[in-house]
Amino acid sequence: MRQKLFSEKTVRILTYFYLAPFALMVCFNAINSLLRTTYFELYRDMETAKYKWDNPVLVLAGSAVLLAVLLFLWRNDKIEIKKLDRLCIWFGGILSLIIVLLFRCEVVCDSEIVSDIAVEFMENNFSAFSRGEYLYRYPFQLGITAMLELIYSIFGVRNFVVFQIINIICSMVILKMLQLIARELFTDERVRRMENVISMGCLPLFLFTTFIYGDMIGWCLGICAVHSIIKYLKSSGLRNAACASAFLSAGVVAKSNINILVVAAVIAIALKGVRDKKWNAVLIAGGVIIISQLGNTCVNQFYVERMGVEKIPGGIPKAAWIAMSLQEADEGGYACGWYNGYNWRIYGENGFDVQKTTQACMESIKESLNRFAHEQKYALTFFYKKFTSQWNAPTFQAMITNEWYSRHSEPLSDVAYFFIYGFGRNILYEIMNIYHFLIFLSTAAFCLLRRKKWDFAQAYFILNIFGGFLFHMIWEAQSRYVLGYFILMLPLAACGVSELFWRLSGLEKIEKAKKRSEDGAFSE
Predict the structure, then answer these.
(1) Using one digit for the tens of pLDDT, what is the confidence trace for 172-195?
(2) What is the 3-state secondary structure of 439-453?
């Protein structure tokens, strides 16, 4: 017993190494969201994050109204949780369908390139793998290309609506998984009610169902994996670990950044092994690593055999993304760490030689770190902008993405034009701005009010979000990339709101007094 308590204490101490920074990050961004905001201008060919002062009075007033609604629902025990669950899922699905039909988005930028390559694959044209071409440089995009080829083969070439319907289904599955995660992490039914209502307000999630890319599919599978790992941590069932591995394997094919969730799962399984003194956790963690990469291996092998080549090109070395993440993407210094073409350019300049490219990237990294070391004010400003441009963007690029991808859908309806370019755009932005602040405020309340109520499954859940924060501070920045982690914050925000209402209502004191009374009667 003493050894088990020691092991659990060790695991708890280890988790505090990231729980404390996570709490600081959330609290800082709650304040930041109240005072500042990141936005993206219309009619641009490159997304450039810009910053402006917010309207705290408007944000606080809007948040107060939303909190009043949540308080009413929190107190109302007559609402059946099953009906609310169904309402949340169908609300998200119907709203997403309306957005898809209204904006009629097509493909541009990278999604247009992979779509065109998928069409070429259908004609057995694999020139995209030729020296210097797109998949030669970015082979990690093969997974989404293969998905598009499969969809086009079944439903017709460039049938974007089918892909968007898949995205809608994914958004509904995400909502369902958030419900199940809230149920696993928090026993109080009030938290589940709050989670449902809060999830229905996540407009960026629904707006991204128009996006012809791997984000929605990847995050849907990733969140399914997170739910399975939570169940594994609570029950030690190998079936749950196997399910998580399968979800992660498919998720990585759709979106390579899902590997962050793989790392979090492996760490959690290892810590559970330490806590429970079960060393077979090493084998289980190893199995998760291997199975999670099988999806990409199978896709690569399929195209290797189809093309009759030895292997898929290795692509641009990862050091190029790290080097780019420490650079400015524009002359104004607004987009710190965002895409600036460096990785594409440096690979070509070094004759597509991985070793030479890596060496050049390491030199660039050294130069950036040296400047940060000697110009501390510049370093602080750089990383503040990099953090803010990702985590303090209420739309997570959802509005600018829909503008880009609907440009070629002319003529747009008056309603679509109103929401993309007109006053409706401002309305949507302010709704998302207030919602963004409320989620960070509520998550901050969770961190502060439940700091003494340590739970291993909750600690693992938070590790996924913190992993995303850490990764994208040393990798290419985009606010779209962190949307999935923001969505994972919704159950925490629901618990934070519920905990806040619980304390303000005085129920906590009543419960404590009741417990003391029961303990006293028992001792007598």
Answers:
(1) 999 999 999 999 999 888 999 999
(2) HHHHHHHHHHHCCCC
